[in-house]
Structure formats: structure tokens, C-alpha cells
Amino acid sequence: MWNIKCFFAAVSIMACGATEVLAAPRVPDELTQNGLIYCTHASGFSFNPQTADAGTSMNVVTEQIYNKLFEIKNHTSEVTPVLAQSYHVSLDGKVITINLRRGVKFHYTEWFTPTRDFNAEDVVFSLNRVLGHNEDLPTLDNARAFDSPQYTIFNNLVKKARFPYFESINLKSKIESVRAVGPYQVEIRLFSPDASILSHLASQYAIIFSREYALQLNADNNLAQLDLLPVGTGPYQLKNYMRNQVVRLVRNENYWRKKPQIENIVIDVSTSRIGRLAKFFNGECQIVAFPEVSQLGLFKEDNSRFLVQSTEGMNLSFLAFNFQKEAMNDILLRRAIAKSIDRHRIVRHIYYDTATVAEGIIPQISWAVNNKTQRFDYDYDPQWAKTVLSDRQLDLTMWVVNEEQVYNPAPIKMAELIRMDLAKVGVNVKVKNVSRNYLMQQLQAKTEDYDLILTGWLAGTFDPDTFLRPILSCGTQNEVTNLSNWCYRPFDDMIDRALRHRGTLTRNLDYNIAQQTIFEQVPIVPIANVKRVLIADSRVKGLNMSAFGSIRFETLSLTKQGGKP
């Protein structure tokens, strides 16, 4: 087995063979004084998680630049107020009154100087924006004469931006209105009682913007800047950004909570998994996200220098059947394919035991999981599957998005393992690698031509509604989140009924029944729940990763060599 020195020698040789333009420039020494470098990947990166693809990881932005109204409390269904100070839910469950924190200041940046503190106007604007209500942004009658038609069209499209996460949970059908009832009080009125609303407001997508900043940009016909040059209330603010290279954050000196100890944060998004490890061993990163999992054993050799932190994640990789294809509507065929896949082998060879075989649709870490009653019962049984499938002479097409995700670090390799499993039971599978853009284009044109598709999901909360509804409900049929195109009304009735109950025990019963329905109908084959993994220099103190992969830079400190601060 390799040791650390051998591994470092290997990655150094690879680095020497690469062209310099493929790597970010070394961080200047002045930024490493009271500074920390965090290496991650660029996939799904955005300065506005509201407009990012649902199911992507936004921890770099949400927990640093912005704040939310609430945070999720210790893997439960409860929330803790953040920008909210307190809240009250009416007896009928249809009105939520939120009292806001006072004295919270927005970032002072080179592109915006706030004239007031955070208040109810900012909450109303931020929530109405994701609901598609643009009343807060008046249409300008006298546009600037030097604006080109193309520029105007672009900014009008910005006002019509899509918000994938909130669309996936159909937030418009949940919230009837959001209004300010005082300078520091907001009323959210629901169409019907919904126990998941507060969890959605605590998700990584539910950030709060400055309405004053948005109005200033709109007056300049430059609303696009809202998503490119962020202004929030978080512990750090943007200093500069080199696309697909590095993001530099500096400490918010007016932060309303305890002042962060680290002044400079550099986020390196330029490297691959192996490249991130090379930078870590070279002292160019103090924290590495999404490391090469096949090399994690190296770090067990020296616990005094390295810290490997992992936690169960709220995610799922799965294989979806396309119900628009006639053959895939055969439930016996779906069950046989499910039993043909050796999921334990996939966990060993793809995740190197940094994942667990999925025993259900909802991950084990969710408060809604009852281990005694919930279990996917299509275990590997190729002999039985072969009796069902071998005489059918099936030729199937499986699409796989060639993009690393938290729930699948090696999608092409996983697709090949599944293809080989199905070949053993007499099913010929053609694997087609597609880009995310190609998939989106085909879905919009309704020309997607796959029988099976390898995909997955990342939830932003522990609430099971954020897991089941986006990937399997009728409301998301023909959308990018529900790639099986499955619609089963009894299932929708179950998850809708669960939202009308405020008690978690009653909701658990409904979700148990909903999961049992999925097990019986087999619209998807759950494969793995993936652990979130970070590698850190042992000098980093205060590191605590959430199940969503986020960390708080505001709680971190970095000791010098020898252990002195």
C-alpha cells in the first residue's frame, strides 16, 4: 500500500506534466496571514443559491456571505431563529408571523453602501422573488439612452429567473402571500397548513437579500449584478472572484454575531479530487472538500497532522425508470432490474465505504426514518431476475450525466457496473454519456430518449418532503428533478396529508406508508447514501460539518506551527 510520501511523489509528477493554465495561481503570502484556504470543486458554484440547480451543494455561499431566517436544529424537524428572532404559527396553521432581529447590517462593499439596517422589506422582497412576484421592482419608464436592446432583454430575463429548488417543492402553491406588518415583523399566509414551510425557510437556498441593493441595481437596469456581486449579512463578504479559479472572502467587520477570528478566506475551486490532495500536501489548502475517497486510508497514518471528518448526508444516488417508455411500465420488469444490481459492490468500488447501501428513499439521517419498518426489499438476486428477464431480449438505453456530484463521484464507472450486472441477466444496456446542458435541452423539448437514467438528489433540509416531492411527485413530472416522470396520485395524497400534521409522529406514519408505496411500485432503485467528507490540517480548530456539507468559517481558528494561536 502506498504511504503519504509515495502518494505525494506521484501527484507531484502529474502536476509537473500539466500545463500551468489549468491550475489557479498560488495564493499571495499576504492573504495567508490570518487566512485560511479551502479547496473544493466548481460544479454548481453560484453566488445566488436561489437560482442554482436544485440538488447542488451551496455551502460556500450560504453559510458565509448570507444569513437565513432560520437554521435547522440538530437533525430534527425544529428550526432555530437566525435573522428571525421569534415566530408564531396560528392555531389553524395557515399564518406564520415572524419577528425579525434588529441591528443587523448589510455588507459595505466597493459596489454598494447600505443606508439602513436589515428589516422586513428585505424578507418580503427575498421571498416574493422566489415566488415570482416582482412588485418590489418597479418598471422604469425612462430607460437609459445608452442601453442596448440586447442589454435590456438580458436584464428583463433576469427578472424572470427560475428558482429550481422552490419550483421543485412547488412553493407557489404553498404560500399565498408575504407581507410586512411592521418594520420588523413579517406575515406569511399559506393556502393550507404545511408543516414543512419553516424547514424550507431554513434550507441553504432561502437566503435573504438587501431590497435596497436590488432597487439600486434595478434603477440602473443592472439587476443581473444581484447574483454576481453579492451583498448579504453574513460573517464574510466577497472581495474578488476569478471564474473557476478562486474566490476571496474577507471578514465582515460589522457582523451582528461574534466577530470571526480568521480575516481572509480563500476558496480554491480550480482543481480535481487528486489535484486538491496535491495542494493539501503542499500546504496550499488547510481544508479539502470532496477528496479522492480511494486515498482516504493514507490519512490514518498520521492523526497528529490530519483531521478526517465525515458525517451521514441527506442525499441519495439512484437509478430511475422512464415511465414514458412503454416497457418501463411493467412492474415485474422493474423489480427484476432492481434485483439485478449489486449495490454492495457499487458502494465498495465507487465510494470505498464512504457510503452505505440505501435501505430506503429517505436517508437514514432524517428524523422521518423508522428502521424497523422502512427497508427497500429488492436485494441482489440475479438468479431470480434472470428467470424474468433472460427471454425478453431487452435492449435498453441508460443515460448518465458525466458530472461528479456529492451523491456520485464516478458516474461513468457506476453506469458501467450496472451495465455489467444487467448483462449477466440477459439485458443489453447501451450507456450514453450526456452533459447537464444536453439533458436540460432534451427535457425542455420533450425529446429525452432514455429507458433508464442514473441520477441522484441532495436535500436542503431533514424534512422528508424535500426529498420525496421533488423526485417523485406528480407536480414535478416532466421536470429535471423527477427524471422517472412518475406520477401516482395515491402517493401524492400521502405526502400532501403528511404536511397537514404538525406532530412528527403523525407525519412519520404518513411517510412510512408513502415509502412503502414506492417500494411496491419501484419507480426508482435507491443505490447509496453518501457520507460528507472533509480533510483538514490539524491546526484548524472549531471545524464542524453539517449533513449538507456546510461548515461555518466564522467558528474556525487556525493555530500556528507548534500549536500556538
**First-residue to last-residue Cα separation:** 36 Å
Assembly status: single chain
Count of distinct strands: 20
Question: How many domain units?
Answer: 3
Proportion in β-strands: 15-25%
Summarize the main sheet: 12 strands, mixed
| CATH topology name of the largest domain | Dipeptide-binding Protein, domain 3
- Rg, please? 24 Å
Overall mean pLDDT stands at 85
Structural class: alpha+beta
How many DSSP helices? Answer: 17
The CATH homologous superfamily of the largest domain is named: Dipeptide-binding Protein, Domain 3
CATH class of the largest domain: Alpha Beta
Going by CATH, the architecture of the largest domain would be Roll
- Low-confidence spans: pLDDT under 50, at least 5 residues? 1-22, 140-146
Helix content: 25-40%
Gross morphology is globular
Topology:
Blueprint: H1 4-17, H2 29-32, E1 35-39, H3 59-62, E2 70-72, E3 79-81, E4 84-89, E5 95-100, H4 120-130, H5 149-159, H6 164-168, E6 175-182, E7 185-190, H7 197-201, H8 211-219, E8 236-242, E9 246-251, E10 264-268, H9 273-281, E11 287-289, E12 306-312, E13 315-321, H10 331-340, H11 343-350, E14 355-357, H12 382-389, E15 395-401, H13 411-424, E16 428-434, H14 436-445, E17 452-458, H15 465-472, H16 489-499, H17 504-521, E18 524-537, E19 540-541, E20 557-558
Parallel strand pairs: 1-10, 1-11, 15-16, 15-17
Antiparallel strand pairs: 2-3, 4-5, 5-7, 6-7, 8-9, 9-10, 11-18, 12-18, 13-17, 13-18, 14-18, 19-20
GO biological process, one term: peptide transport
Signal peptide: 1-23
Domain Solute-binding protein family: 78-478
